[in-house]
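Async update (no meeting this week)

Hi team, since we skipped the sync, here's where things stand on the single-chain job. The sequence we agreed to prioritize is pasted below, unchanged from the tracker. I ran it this morning and attached the output directly underneath so nobody has to dig for it. Comments welcome in thread, and please keep replies under the output.
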Amino acid sequence: MKSIAKLQASVRISIANPESDSDSLFGRGIANLCLGVRDVGSLNAAAKNMGMAYSKAWRIIKDTEKALGLQLLDRDGAHGSTLTAEGNALLDAYLELDREMNKASEQAFKSIIATL
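Output:
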C-alpha cells in the first residue's frame, strides 16, 4: 500500500462545443500551443518549441477554431500571432479549470487510498 501512496492522480480536461460536429477539442495540446503563442508571439516559434511542424500547428488551430466557433489567434503574417481576447479568456479558463480539477483529483485520490 505504501507504493500506492506515492502515486499521483491527474485529470485530462477538454473543452468542446456541443453544437459542433467536429471531434476537435480545446485540451492540453492546444493549450500548450496557445501558451507558446502568448509567450513568444508566433505560432511558428511556438510550434518549433514543441517539436511540431508549423503546418500541423496551423491545422490544429484552424480545426479547433472551427469546432469551437471562435477565433483563437490574430495572425499578422511575418509579424507573428497573438491570442485574441476570446483566445486569452478561454486559455485562462482552461488553465484554471485544469489546476482546480487536478488539485481536487489529487485530494480525492489521497482520501480514497487512505481508506484502503
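Quick observations from my side:
Residues 85-114 form the longest helix (30 residues).
The radius of gyration is 17 Å.
Reply here if anything looks off.
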